[in-house]
Amino acid sequence: MGTTEMRTYADEYRRSMEQPEEFWLEASGLVDWITPPTRALDDREAPIYRWYPDGTLNVSANALDRWVAAGRGDQVALAYDSAMTGSKRTFTYAELLHEVSLFAGVLRGRGVQRGDRVAIYLPMTPEAVIAMLACARIGAVHSVIFGGFAANELAVRIQDAEPKVIVTSSGGLEPGRAVEYLPIVEKALAMIVGDRSVTDAVTSSIAVISEDELSVETVIVRDREAVPGNAAEFDGRVGVRWVDWATELERAEPVGAVEVAATDPLYILYTSGTTGTPKGVVRDHGGYAVALAWSMRSIYDIHPGDVMWTASDVGWVVGHSYIVYGPLLAGATTVLYEGKPVGTPDAGAFWRMVEEYGVKVLFSAPTAVRAIRREDPGLEHLRRYDTSTLEALFLAGERLDTETYHWINDALHCPVVDHWWQTETGWAIAANPRGIEPLPVKPGSPTVPVPGYRVAIVDGKGRQVAAGAEGNIVLELPLPPGSLPTLWGGDERYVSSYLTAFPGHYATGDSGYVDEDGYVYVMGRTDDVINVAGHRLSTGGLEEAINHHPAIAEVAVIGVRDELKGQRAAGFVTLKHGTAIDHEVLVKELVALVRETVGPVAAFRDVTVLDRLPKTRSGKILRKTIRQIADGEPYKVPATIEDPTVLTALEAALGR
Ligand code: COA
Ligand code: AMP
């Protein structure tokens, strides 16, 4: 690969399009292989593609052993800072390698073999990073589940991934409350095995099985002083062993990195689709390692010894790629922050962290910037800290509105970089490739397609639209390394979910346009996925939870505009005939129900009770019209509407 100074974006992009095989074989040199690949792309089973079909490697060895061997053993690999407890801890590369090797030994001791799944349900503590890398070390497939999800979401994921072991902790800490994980894990398992002594909750998304059929054998619990609950209290419940992390470690022997095929699955990460059943995005070892290593230098401009802080959560793809794997594959220092941008203790948290850890690149979500702006509009806190090490603030996860962009970009001494991607791709589809060549910024645009991605805008029939015209954003196949090769549970669902609507292309589910200069603009989703504070949620999943309330006849959940979170979920419900329930009570019960089943992260609070939902004559709920009315936008009465007076009633209910 040429030196940074000599590369231009145009050249790199052209090469990735015209000579993809050479381009990605060359990029594979950024990774240490056990058997170096002789080929980049395997297209024999198109539209299912694999990268580096004959390569073998170990990702944890690339993230740890490699840097110790290169003399970076004493460099900080992981800096942990908990604003929730005030505790801080650093791990050098040598120390992290030791911890990961030992925990790999714990997993082995519990019967985890190459290819077995391990569910990880942990808060933002070092154990999350250690558990993930330990899985990678022995070729086990991790599936991290975000701590803000409740029992039902956990159960659905456990049932789909069939893990042998669950790694968890007594809990997480949110401002003002502890989130106890163990009762949630127990409830999830009880839902799967139909243990009525623990929970009555049964949902249509879970097929009850017997305890003998349950894949989970052991739950490993990391005890946290700040949160009640430990393994001993739960041991034996729902037919599984609950064991203590620390006790297990004392008995464990360190384990070396095993050789795995580049095409083996490294992890499964569930993401919301149109239905309530989440999709298990599969990530491979080889393609992902190469793509991340390439992105670290070409997009983020992060090199060995640099400090990157991604203020996300390990439960999201951003956390997988840029808290855990990316920075460590680059020999950099990664920062793990347990806390919020505001309120823990104040809106200066981000700037304190930058000063304290000498952060070069900070990666966060627009919603966090809006939260800071609301608390500290004059950025008084920024002036209290020396943030001179910061060279760029990267944002992703939702659309970066131009107002937020200008506000933060004007105040900081360094550029703010919007970039667009999704759980499925694993890394940016469109970005400003700062590590190659910083391009001029156009506010409202995440800049240009990243080398490897062929972005096209098509109409509903798959025809390319003119520059500047909005349409469905699709990616021409094959997707570059790092992007999902398939979904867990089979290629069929992958093909039908993403590759069928526009043959030869991957449908991103986003709409937008590309301007005359090739800049991409992402405007919103074309499906029923909503984005609340950078968290991706399925309206179908929320509807399923609400439908379980005995008073509800019909429900539509819509994403409405929210000043802080971008969008928030609003429920529109009708009641079963003859139901007499106080509306205030109903709203409280529905909010509690969503919190209990989907989780607090849904931040569900808005319920509107209607006599009827607006529908077409064929019975389809007019979601777009409901959203337009809720957002106070002008709208057209759809020609297919069954009864236009329903809209008048909706307007009245919303006080429009
Ligand atoms: N475990 C348990 N509960 C969680 C949780 C977790 N890991 N994360 C969030 N929650 C809870 C919150 O406590 C809150 O509960 P509450 O209703 O009792 O207050 C609820 O879920 C909603 O959380 P959130 O949407 O995060 O709102 P917030 O008010 O706590 O904070 C922001 C608002 C903007 C500060 C916050 O959303 C934020 O930092 N967002 C960054 C988004 C991000 O990193 N996205 C990842 C993609 S890059
Ligand atoms: P997730 O899979 O949770 O990362 O969510 C991905 C979705 O978030 C994308 O499909 C977009 O809808 C949205 N998104 C992420 N980043 C951006 C961005 N920079 N601009 C606009 N939308 C974004």
Keywords:
alpha/beta, single chain, 23% strand, GMP Synthetase, Chain A, domain 3, 19 helices, binds coenzyme A, Rossmann fold, 5-stranded parallel beta sheet, 656 residues, binds adenosine monophosphate
Overall description:
The chain is an alpha/beta fold and 656 residues long. Among the domains are: 94-260, Rossmann fold; 533-653, ANL, C-terminal domain (GMP Synthetase, Chain A, domain 3), CATH 3.30.300. A hairpin with a 7-residue loop joins strand 14 and strand 15. Helix 13 (366-375) packs across helix 14.
- Classification by helices and strands: alpha/beta
DSSP strand (E) fraction?
15-25%
Whole-number mean pLDDT:
96
* CATH class bucket of the domain at 94-260: Alpha Beta
Q: Assembly state here?
A: single chain
Question: Strand count, sense and closure of the main sheet?
Answer: 7 strands, mixed
Which range best describes the helical content: under 10%, 10-25%, 25-40%, 40-55%, 55-70% or over 70%? 25-40%
Low-pLDDT sequence parts: none
Q: Compute the CA-based radius of gyration.
A: 24 Å
Overall spatial form: globular
Within the CATH hierarchy, at the fold level, what is the topology of the domain at 94-260? Rossmann fold
Number of strands: 31
- Small ligands present: coenzyme A, adenosine monophosphate
